[in-house]
Amino acid sequence: MKAILYFHVILLAVIQISGQNIRLDLFLADTANWRTLHYPKTVKRFYEQNGFKYAWMDSEKDLLQGAVALLASAPQYGMSSYANQPQEFSAEKLKKAAHPTTAKDSVAMIRNDILITDQLITFLNHLHFGKYNPFYKADEIDERNIDGFRADEILAGALRKRNLQNAASEAQPKIKAYQDLQNYLRRTFSGDNEVPPETVTKIIINMERLRWVDTDEDSYILVNIPSYTLEFHQAGKISEFKVIVGKPSNKSPVLKSAIHYFTTAPVWVVPQSIMMKEILPKILKNRQYLTNHHYSFYNKEGHPIKGNSTTLKAVRSNPSQFTVRQSAGPGNALGAIVFRFPNPYHVYLHDTSQPNLFHQEYRALSHGCIRVEDAKQLAGLLLTGDGAANQIPELEEAMQTYTRKDFILKKPVPFMISYLTCRIHQGKPEMFRDIYGLDKNLEQKFPN
């Protein structure tokens, strides 16, 4: 209510200066007027593209109604309705505001035009990035172009074509898992599917999660933590692999990155937490553990040092000055190959020296990294997709002999780790165990 009153005060001030001719450019040029808007900079860019003309209140009736109808249809896209103030967008009030005869009517006209624009842009941004995106905050989305997406450009284009539904279609994620959920939800709203409310909620929260990791590329790798699977989408074909993910106490992170290269015969630099909690106690109990498992101590300069009693004493008193590395070979925790992708969590995708674990149904067993079954096959598919299938024999030789070699991709492949407790499989919802207990919090943000 305070925001609405503030909006009225500002608009009346503009009217007093310029009479009945309320100028959108002057109003939006004053940043003090932005506080009632969710994406003020994006709203301003939209009106710049529209020549600072009214977009909805001074247009044909069907366009205005289309804007309000699109906001009201948000639940069909797995979102809460954005026409959440029906008294503000009632047909009678909009009709009166679209034909101002007094200063008060002019206030309503500009106010509703800007509010509708901001609501549409908010809807499009939420549809593309998600409402609760952990990677991008609203002010960052408002400020700049992120991965080529600009809600103002999409809305302006839809306005020119007089087809607002196109804006929603263009903003939505293109990733297959999302499209499957969206299509099923749309059929549910049209009455084609009889679905329990709790299943609808699962679909909605997992659509939200997929907005956080979407990609426009046709080839990509999607890891899903709850299903313990990795999908490589390539040229319309999907290759599925089993994976091992982080334990609930060492959760694998949700992230969006790209695989740039992979390395055979990797050396494992043991993280400090694992060194202190797991490796060092075993070494202290039996010094032969170092040799038996091919571990070595290194000082902060990166030089190897002997694992004698003096070193162990120094490590115990000042562990941050030392690292432990495991040399390449059959017993290396990373296996014969590791796939590298930039991320702030220091996790990677890799082979394993314990392939028997893939036979288990419950595979939340790692310290956070993703272990993949048939890593050689995955590497071969990456090389083939990169136009380097001729390097596969070299890859196989390097893995067989534990020879270190980097295979650099000419075009990095998008790599995403997601947390999906529901997907559409063979036309029906398939549920997965919520192994990290993350559903409840998100479900509360999307009441059915």
Compose a concise summary of this entry.
With 448 residues, this protein is α+β, with helices and mostly antiparallel strands. 42% of the residues lie in helices and 18% in strands. It has three domains: 2-171, no CATH class; 207-267 and 331-428, L,D-transpeptidase catalytic domain-like (Beta Barrel), CATH 2.40.440.10; 269-326.
Highlighted features:
17 helices, 448 residues, alpha+beta, 18% strand, cell wall biogenesis/degradation, 4-stranded antiparallel beta sheet, L,D-transpeptidase catalytic domain-like, disordered N terminus
Q: Which regions are unreliable across 5 or more consecutive residues at pLDDT < 50?
A: 1-21
Integer average pLDDT: 88
When the domains are counted, the total is: 3
Biggest β-sheet description: 8 strands, mixed, barrel
Helix/sheet category: alpha+beta
Our Rg estimate from Cα atoms comes to 28 Å
Annotation, overall tally of beta strands? 15
SS field, number of helical segments: 17
N/C terminus separation:
26 Å
Proportion in β-strands: 15-25%
Instruction: Summarize the amount of helix as a percent range.
Output: 40-55%
Shape: elongated
Strand order of the main beta sheet, please?
Answer: 1-2-3-12-10-9-4-13
Active site: 350, 369
Keywords: Cell shape, Cell wall biogenesis/degradation, Peptidoglycan synthesis, Transferase
Family: Belongs to the YkuD family.
Pfam family, one: YkuD
